[in-house]
Write a structure and sequence with these properties.
The chain is α+β, with helices and mostly antiparallel strands. It has one domain: Gcn5-related N-acetyltransferase (GNAT) (Aminopeptidase, 3-Layer(aba) Sandwich), CATH 3.40.630. Helices cover 31% and strands 28% of the residues. The chain binds coenzyme A.
Length: 216
């Protein structure tokens, strides 16, 4: 049973998926295997797990908030149907083994209070971009930092990544602070990088290389 699971995940029996240093000649999880069954992750206050249809009401509570949506690339949800459509989209990505997101479930309440995951993944360049959003009442309690640390660890443990990156609207420094706390390096400002909510906006690009993880 275990060896079948390991074969499905394209790793050798006896090989742990955590704590390995990157070796380009070794088999990591195939990206499809990883993305089709994103591992459940746990932090002090959160459980990171795949999205369920029953999460729609919780997602709507934060995704309908214009302040949450202000600097992200999606518009505020206007009905629970929008949130359900988002969850259905994520579940299709899981089925297809494509980059997607975890739901962030707050342990103390069992409620979903946000999401975090992959914006894209490039096997050719061994890189990926991460993105996240959390419910406003939960801001500034260290939750995004907890979740991002767990996602970064999982991504580098299970995918043959060289580089993770993230970018945020220049006017959204809280997002940059989360990246900084997780060890990302600020690379610079991309002027007029994206068209969002009716205007061209400057973004800040951050990166974390695998080699940064072993920096003292
Ligand atoms: C950005 C976001 C994910 C941060 O989540 P969070 O759980 O509040 O993050 P954390 O509590 O782990 O860390 C936030 C840090 O930003 C700091 N911060 C908050 N507002 C800030 C501001 N205006 N300027 C500078 N730093 C700020 C906090 O003080 C904290 O740093 P500290 O621990 O050194 O005090 C959350 O605000 C959010 O979901 N925003 C809406 C969606 C979004 O913008 N997503 C990012 C798209 S790139």
């Amino acid at each position: 049973m275990l060896s079948r699971l390991l074969r499905r995940l394209a790793i050798e029996p006896g090989e742990s998926s955590s704590g390995r240093s990157y070796d380009p000649d070794r088999a990591y999880f195939s990206d499809r295997a990883y993305f089709s069954s994103l591992p459940r992750l746990e932090t002090a206050d959160l459980i990171l797990r795949t999205a369920l249809r029953t999460d729609a009401e919780d997602v709507f509570l934060y995704a309908a908030d214009p302040e949450v949506a202000r600097y992200v690339l999606w518009d505020p949800h206007t009905s629970v149907g929008d949130s359900l459509a988002y969850i259905r989209y994520l579940r299709r990505l899981y089925r297809e083994g494509m980059p997607s997101s975890w739901m962030l479930e707050l342990k103390s309440t069992g409620k979903v209070i946000g999401s975090m995951g992959f914006v894209w993944y490039s096997p050719l360049n061994r890189s990926a971009e991460l993105g996240y959003s959390l419910a406003r009442p939960c801001w500034n309690h260290g939750l995004a930092t907890q979740a991002l640390s767990a996602v970064v660890r999982s991504a580098f443990d299970n995918l043959p990544l060289h580089r993770l990156e993230a970018q945020h609207d220049l006017r959204n420094p809280a997002s940059g602070r989360v990246l900084e706390k997780c060890g990302f390096t600020r690379e610079g400002i991309l002027r007029g990088r994206i068209f969002n909510k009716g205007e061209m906006v400057d973004t800040v690009l951050w990166s974390l290389l695998r080699s940064d993880l072993s920096r003292p």
